[in-house]
Amino acid sequence: MEKKKEIALGNYVKDLITGYEGTLTGRAVYLNGCVRVGIQAEIDKDGKVPDGYWVDEQQIILWSKKENRKCCVKKTGGPMPAPKRQPDPRR
User: Fold this and answer.
1) What's the pTM value of the predicted model, to 2 decimals?
2) Which of 9, 17, 18, 31 is the most exposed place for a label (fewest CB within 10 A)?
3) Segments making up each domain of the chain, as ranges
């Protein structure tokens, strides 16, 4: 049996059941073992952003119509230096 390619956030994917395609934007793992992924289609010709679409992970494939890209989310948070305060002008 052929091993399925790893699908990562930011990849362009297609739902095999409905044909819906777009960028993989989210992944949810539930306590019962169900894994669902969020797909966001591109902006339509009128400039409207379509609703996201959630589907079982097993029914999506990497879709080579668009360039697949790794998620490029900038990590934020973590230890930060204390903010510097301006001296009180009354003192």
Assistant:
1) 0.63
2) 31
3) 12-62
